[in-house]
Amino acid sequence: MATSRTETPTGSTRTAPAALWGVYGVVAVVSSVLVLRRPEWERLSDLHIYYGAIRHLHTGGALYEFVAENGGPFTYPPFAALVLSPIGLLPEGALQLGWLVLTCAAVAAIGIAAGRALAPDRQRRPLVVAATAVALLLSAPAQSNLRFGQVSVFVVLLALVDGMRLTPARYRGVLVGIAAAIKLTPLLFVLYFLLARRFRDAGRALAAFLLCGLVGAAVLPAESVIFWTGTFLNTNRVGNLASLGNQSLHGMLLRIGVDGATFPLLWLSLVLVIGGIALLRARRLEFAGQPAHAAVLVGCATVAVSPVSWTHHQIWPVLAAMLLIGAYGVARRVAGAVLLVVMVLSLGALLSAVSMTPGLQFLFENSRLLAVVTLCLVGFGGVAVAAVAAGRRTGTARGWLRVATAAVAGVAFFAVQPLPAGADPTFKAYAMSDVHNPRYFFVCRSAAGCAAFGAGAPVTFGVTAEKTKVRVNGVVDPAVVARLEYQSAPGGAARTIPLLEVYPGQRLFSFRSANLSHGRLTAYRADGTPVAVYTEELTAG
């Protein structure tokens, strides 16, 4: 009987991880197939930019003058172009398939590394590792890496392995240096190594970064001069940084509408405070024997302080949520579950109907950034430690009551704030160059169709709701309407909507916004008098 009791768990322990890895394979295949079935113009769009830029470079073109069909430029350092150089030798179809395989392998490797930290018990480790990998692959950041064909997942893997001390001691730090030479944000790990007294790791990371930069300069001297003398500071090249997808401090301040004169000082101050506190807390975790937690916290700090943090950069907060869920204590696990929900779901889109005030909408739309900033400030368990301490001193029920009260107070704080309505962080008014781009929707595609659509009214429009934005597309009568303006919130700046003469004698327009709940569309005559004002019609549509 004793033998049978010890064999049964062993058998199940072996079977369950294998089954989960089978699930991982199925999810990887299904996800990849769905990516490959997307329209050609949006399939692995970032990989298409890399591919086009490398091919352009191979034919003697200037790397940073290349612009893909979707408007995307190459934004990484010259060394990244050298690393990516072999992809230009492959057919793009084969490259796409291979890139998807490598991305799924990188996600699995990250899951294995994080799973080791979650399961110090060797008997449970295979199961936890497999479950972590599956959950990570299903997360929005991993799926975004697959969808866009991004390098972010590989950068995270390099920095995580080095930060967790999984690389041999004599080479530790080199991977961080290489990752930073491909994408600059891992340079924050060098500061972390210094604060954590990992001086040799910091030296190797900095040396590897500089060596990679020198290699890039030797092979691509002109591109290196262009990049390091200005291009790397021009963050606007990567797109609209005020859009909701950019969940960084920089993006949130743009959405708030901070005055341009005070913006740099305010942003830099917040970066120094939040990044500095995160690094100090990471040092404490390192000294406490938790290098994985420390590395993930530094990674989360890069998400918060970087000027650009799209969804595919946000693997770090997902790892943080998993580490919290795997920790001891109900409060930490609840905090981890909340963080995971925030990172997986788009609360701004899902809760827009119940966000009764501009402040709440602002909270929902910036929830990922606010969650990451909270993590940077409290480290792993700061809130949970307070709850446990309060529970021990005053009783568990009263401790939880204090935490719940603090949470309600936080939401109430945003509820009464006169913050921007959040209706225009993704605002874009389309121009003539966008009319024939299949990514953008217009209400009509022929002279006859536009004439029929706009007949009988000064302004005729339709509203199309998508997951994270709303598009307004219409036609105006040019004999009546000379100017069209949109305000995203009462008192907000009016934005001019271009009237596009796509067909002779007709004017079309199209713009997008995060939501239209506070929007106001106004049409003016040539003398400046209003022709029509639309508010309820926007939300009704």
Biggest beta sheet summary: 4 strands, antiparallel
Question: What is the number of domains?
Answer: 3
The strand line-up of the biggest sheet is 1-6-3-2
- What is the count of helical runs? 23
C-alpha geometry: globular
Helix content: 55-70%
What is the average of the pLDDT values?
Answer: 83
Low-pLDDT segments:
1-9, 382-395
Structural class: alpha+beta
Rg over CA atoms: 26 Å
**What is the terminal separation in angstroms?**
70 Å
Q: What fraction of the residues are assigned to beta strands by DSSP?
A: 5-15%
**Quantity of strands, as a count:** 8
Summarize the structure.
This protein is of the alpha+beta class and 541 residues long. 57% of the residues lie in helices and 7% in strands.
Overview of this protein structure:
The structure is a single chain. The protein folds into three domains: about 10-230, no CATH class; about 240-420, no CATH class; about 430-540, Immunoglobulins (Immunoglobulin-like, Sandwich), CATH 2.60.40. Residues about 1-10 and about 380-395 have low confidence and may be disordered. The chain has helices spanning about 1-35, 45-60, 80-85, 90-120, 125-140, 140-150, 150-165, 175-180, 190-195, 200-220, 220-230, 250-255, 265-285, 290-305, 315-325, 330-345, 345-350, 360-365, 365-380, 380-395, 395-415, 445-455, 535-540, and strands spanning about 430, 460-465, 470-475, 485, 495, 505-515, 520-525, 530-535. The N and C termini lie far apart (about 70 Å). The strands form two sheets. A four-stranded antiparallel beta sheet has the order 1-6-3-2, covered by helices on one side. Strands 5-4-7-8 form a four-stranded antiparallel beta sheet. Helix 1 runs antiparallel to helix 4 and helix 9 packs antiparallel against helix 10. The chain is of the alpha+beta class and about 550 residues long. The longest helix has about 35 residues, at about 1-35. Strand 7 (about 520-525) and strand 8 form a beta hairpin.
